[in-house]
Amino acid sequence: MSQIEQLPPVEWAVSTGRVPYPDAVKAMEQRAAAISRGEAAELIWLLEHDRLYTAGTSAKPEDLTDPDRLPVFETGRGGEYTYHGPGQRVAYVMLDLTKRGRDARKFVRDLEDWIINTLDSFNVKGERRCGRVGVWVDRTEPGGPEREDKIAAIGIRLRRWVSFHGIALNVEPNLDDFTGITPCGITDPRYGVTSLVDLGLPVTMDDADMALKSAFEGVFGEVMVVEPPV
User: Fold this and answer.
1) What is the separation of C-alpha 74 from the centre of its chain, rounded to a whole number of angstroms?
2) Exposed, middle or buried, 52 (CB in 10 Å: 0-12/13-18/19+)?
3) What three-state secondary structure class fits 105?
4) What is the pLDDT of residues 108-143, one digit of tens each?
5) Is 39 helix (H, G, I), strand (E, B) or coil?
6) One of 35, 154, 168, 184 is an active-site residue; which one?
7) What value, to the nearest 5°, has the Cα angle with vertex 73 and ends 48 and 136?
8) Is there a catalytic annotation at residue 130?
9) Phi, psi values for residue 13, rounded to 5°
10) Rounded to two decimals, what is the model's pTM?
């Protein structure tokens, strides 16, 4: 029996309404602390936020190109600026790495595999890129210039080997809102942002949730559906 098979199911919660970002962060940090104390189960929490920007620990002021467009929240996750909004599925990941090998690099690769396998269910080839965090889609046309678009972001923090923050998969967000920041500090015009619907796929949030759940179980183990914390 593998290490994953020996673990109890991860709790899986989906919020149907938009959750205010400060409320989500508070609930997430409280849950991560409880997991660290051995008082709560691991949790994956799927939700949507209203339109906003978040600044990770490496965010540079010059990468907030339109500071008056949307609210900006400083956050303790790694990375730079990113966008959250309706049509984007945010998954907050509260897992105990003391039970999963204490290997932060492998953990990030597992998160990438989770996203890549989710996209595969829609016949989208998601790819890693050295030096560019997240999951990318190659959109280079035959004979044309190189073009790659990011379809999912990853921003994680570990505290006492318990993770919080997580991933953000673009299902059908307003891609124009990404122009108010330099996403993840990447200024190269060859690299942009896309979504499942932008790729021409009529994917609903429920479709994305089903694919995320199935792919998660393939990487991290069984889940058990529960009510969301907020």
Assistant:
1) 17
2) middle
3) helix
4) 999 999 999 999 999 999 999 987 889 999 999 898
5) coil
6) 184
7) 60
8) no
9) -125, 145
10) 0.94
